[in-house]
Amino acid sequence: MSTSANPSSSTVSGGRNGGSRRREKQRGLPKFCRCGEEATIKTSETAKNPGRLFYGCPNGSEGDKYHLFTWTDERVVEEVEDLKCLVSDLEAELSAVKADVAGLEKQVEHSMVMIGIARNRCCTIL
């Protein structure tokens, strides 16, 4: 399983049975089924998972392995995990930018002092 900066773009390849059929699974919240239909949130009515929410394809049916089916709670956990990583990366970048700004502020302050000194020398010569 690989993770990238875009939380919903990572994929997992392969299948349970190790067959030649290749299956791609995106992490995070799905937007579309592989057939192109928009994913919808549905409620399970099975005895095993009554009332549990899942993402499904409008064209899919129970037992259909081609169309989208994934539990909403599992995908939300993936999304939160990926967003935590993204926030951590952004915090590190923000710290670096703050350090750069502080350095630039010191350079500006030094330049202003040097300009003041140059003006004073210029005026005393006249």
UniProtKB/TrEMBL annotation:
Residues 73-107 form a coiled coil. Residues 33-75 form the GRF-type domain. This is GRF-type domain-containing protein. It holds the Pfam family Zn_ribbon_GRF. Residues 1-27 are annotated as: Disordered. GO terms for molecular function: zinc ion binding. Keywords: Coiled coil, Metal-binding, Zinc, Zinc-finger. Residues 1-14 have a biased composition (Low complexity).
